[in-house]
Amino acid sequence: MQTIQEKNKAVVKRFNEAFIIKGDLQAFEEIVAPDFINHTGPVGNNDATATRDFIIKLLRPAFPDIQLEILDMIAENDKVVTHKAFTGTFSAPFLGQQPTGKKATLRIIDIVQLKDGKYIAHWSIREITTVG
């Protein structure tokens, strides 16, 4: 039988693989609670809709060939911490940086709080580097 931490890690992995990488909106709707708060987003633009739009309208166009490597994932109580790297061709403006047309890596440390298998809160640190 899976622990709550194992279940939460599986949800976080699914969010990253199904929604961020593949763009599966149904996965987003199933995983993110309606009252979700992204504490990294600006106040007034940090709800579930803003988070969905950030990924669909900014992240995915910036890296149309986006790939994911989960470097580490740690779960404790109701939170999952993920250290991950997204790589792809930097093709559109993102996080105040202009596209280079070169391979880039976006390294992220995320903290996701879950309740009943759904995202209810998020915190993040992000860093983008261009290669070549």
Q: How far apart, in Å, are the first and last alpha carbons?
A: 46 Å
User: How many distinct helices?
Assistant: 3
Strand content: 35-45%
* Spatial ordering of strands, largest sheet: 1-5-4-3-2
Rounded mean pLDDT is 95
Shape: globular
Strand segment tally: 5
Order of helices and strands: HHEHEEEE
**Roughly how much helix do the residues carry, as a percent range?**
25-40%
User: pLDDT under 50 segments (min length 5)?
Assistant: none
Q: Biggest β-sheet, characterized?
A: 5 strands, mixed
Structural class: alpha+beta
Rg, Å, rounded: 14 Å
Task: Describe the model.
With 132 residues, the protein is α+β, with helices and mostly antiparallel strands. It contains 3 helices and 5 strands; from the N terminus they run H-H-E-H-E-E-E-E. The chain has a 5-stranded mixed sheet with strand order 1-5-4-3-2. Strand 4 and strand 5 form a beta hairpin. The protein starts with a helix and ends with a strand. The mean pLDDT is 95.
Offer a concise description of the structure:
The protein has 132 residues and is α+β, with helices and mostly antiparallel strands. It has helices at residues 4-21, 25-31, 48-62, and strands at 32-38, 67-76, 79-89, 103-115, 118-130.
